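Worked example (supplementary).
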Amino acid sequence: MKIVTRFAPSPTGFMHVGGVRTALFAWAFARKHGGTFILRFEDTDKEREVEGSKEHIIKSLTWLGITWDEGPDIGGPNAPYIQSERLQSYKKYAQTLIDKGYAYADPYTEEELEGLRKKSEEAKKPFLYREYRPENPPAWDGTQPLRLKVPEIKSYKWHDEVRGDLSAGPEAIDDFILIKSDGYPTYNFAHIIDDIEMKVTHILRGDEFISSTPKFLSLYEALGVEHPKFVTLPPIMRADGKKKLGKRDGAKDILEYKEEGYLKEAMMNFLAFIGWNPGGEKEIFSPEEFVKEFSIEHIQIAGGKFNEEKLDWVNKEYLKKLGDKEKAEAVKNYLEKYKKDSWNTIEIKEALVNLITERVKKWGEIKELVTSGELDCFFEEPILKRELIVWKKDKDASSAIAHLNAASKIIESLEEQDCNAKIIKEKLMVYAEKEGKGSVLWPLRYALSGKEQSPDPFALIEILGKNKTLHRWKKAKEILEN
RNA sequence: GGCCCUAUCGUCUAACGGUUAGGACAGUGCCCUUUCAAGGCGCAAACCCGGGUUCGAUUCCCGGUAGGGUCACCA
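After joint prediction of all chains, the assembly is encoded as:
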């Protein structure tokens, strides 16, 4: 059997981690088994639809590298893949149900229904439409809602690939609406028809659908069709664990993470581990490895919280693995984006790229590096304070002057191509070991960075180069001598 | 409230009847070191409670508790 999965969002806004995770698992499952992954838009609620969100969703999935074999943008054997363009299909199935006696027009007004609902509530009983099912419903003319007449009122039992055997009592099924009075089908109806027509074999979705599964089951039964396999994914909870993560809880647009400089592989890796765990101790999985390892048996049952600190850690792991070219490009882009006006030259050597990469968890943090002034010394001359040039354990300035002189001689004697941190360190350390490391290295470093806390002097020298190094040391000496 | 689902360190999780309950993030300590970052090595930290079943339960069953989901002409 060829596996067919789908991701079927409604275009009502951006996608947050919850939706993306669902898409990711459905995608991974299809890819793992060489199956088909379908993207379908469920836009039957025209009121809630948000302009541009279809494109936004496509952009989000594309960023992560989630690709589909059939979809609204690329078509496929069961096109169209937008529900509002499939109304004929729903009408056809609706007619079949009417003919079979499994669907009827709902004659009540909304006010009447509201009244009935209230009555049930006051009686502390659940409201069930089927208890008020009209004896002789009018012929359906398309202006009233069309309801399913459940084939049989009974308890349903079904199997979920993740949760195992599930069941619900007869109060879980009711004559739900198939087609709204505006002519559009409800989700409950449309998604089932689409899944049948598109030959979906596995439905992966969140656990909020467990309670409506009996409804779906009764519809499959009325249609005389076997249902696909249900694969229920655990919910992603808010960081405080109190609720399912939703947009109003500050769940971010997945593309915001892109803006913040997270790597897409890291994002996928992180998302994969919310609700899935292969069992071993390996935590870093490339997209390829993830697809290879993915299996339904390892999907979690209980919900998990969204932990951005872990995401940062995962991202850092991917940052470390990046090639020199990718790192350089990213650093350059973000530096350009956040650079200070006062910086005159922005020359970015490989050593600086490495230094910056080492200090961020995600590229967006370059912004903080810039604002905090940590990078200033690379792009403008630092302002030195006399009392800070000398190491705190030294009594007077004489040793610092001597060290600056000695170090200047060493650097002067270096060939330009030998001006890298490793060689610089080798040369300077001979002197520093002899004279006392703190006493030597502190003034050298401070004179270059103007900061009490900064990278070590060897890296600074490499990044600044011979001329600037010697110039700044000379300046420091002048301050001390006056 | 009815129905349904869930329950291992603060967090994500491993364990599929017998383990000193393992790993990761976060926390903390030490080392490295001129300072910061990074890195290395440690430490601390969990089986929700109560009954069964069993020679033996974190694991299986039941009940409680807690949390979540769902009860729309939303998906």
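Two points are worth noting when inspecting this output. The CA atoms of residues 122 and 354 of chain A lie 68 Å apart. Chain A has a mean pLDDT of 93.
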